[in-house]
Amino acid sequence: MPSAAEATFVPEPPLPDDASAAGLDAEVRRDLRGLQKETAETVARHLVAAGSLVDEDPELALQHARYARRRAARIAVVREAAGIAAYHAGEWTEALGELRAARRMGGGPGHLPVMADIERALGRPERALELARGPEAAELGQAERIELAIVAAGARRDLGELDAAVVGLQIPELDAAHRDPWSARLFYAYADNLHAAGRESDALQWFVHATDADEHGETDAAARIAELTGEPLDEDDVTFGEELPADEAPAQPEDTAEPDEPTEPGEPTEPAEPDEPEDSAEPEPADEHERTDRAPEPGA
């Protein structure tokens, strides 16, 4: 094999048995129709494998996405998938190159928040803000626009502009009464920036709002509340304000000793001293806590 070809050769990773082309979005399958039938089937199965592995094994997901790219490099959706897989694997330069290529092919502005976040990861917050202010940002849907605002606030923090980061998230969607798909992340990002700006009381209130809105465990808002209040985090990871069903509540031991005086109904008993929470390891990113201003995973 010539040295140039050897340098760009991508071996085909084994496909999982459940990686079926039928699991690919219908619109994506239509984009693959320009390929030969057998090639389209192979590319589709590798894209499905990449999507299913991106959370649990991003490195292996990237191998599948790279192979699909080698077989169908001229299709925008394939380049998008390769870029997203590289993003989750921490291959920032590769991810940015693939997403830029997808945009040139007409892939649209949907991954603009991811690209801005990559610029941050590469130490270029100014470029992240340029993307957030660019004309393509106006073409984003509501969810993507909010994610871009969260990333832009993170870029402001990278530049030391803490108050500007807070103001940048004061958008109409920042309403504690709302329960939208982005509410938990938006509330958390706002609380996190308030805390960075030294406004601990306001930050605590918005961490509470984030916890209330976080139905799927997207954030560590409960841990942040425990940190700010000095209260231990429940080891069972019970959401603040959530009552356990009667059949799941821990059984209370019976007191066999006869009390000197009868206890009045409803009289509280003194709780036992809780164990001290274990210190958690410091996260890798420069921010004090896990970056929730990072763009979310793409939809399948």
From TrEMBL:
Residues 1-20, 235-300 are annotated as: Disordered. The lineage of its organism: Bacteria, Bacillati, Actinomycetota, Actinomycetes, Pseudonocardiales. Residues 235-246, 255-264, 270-285 have a biased composition (Acidic residues). This is Tetratrico peptide repeat group 5 domain-containing protein. Residues 286-300 have a biased composition (Basic and acidic residues). It comes from the Bacteria.
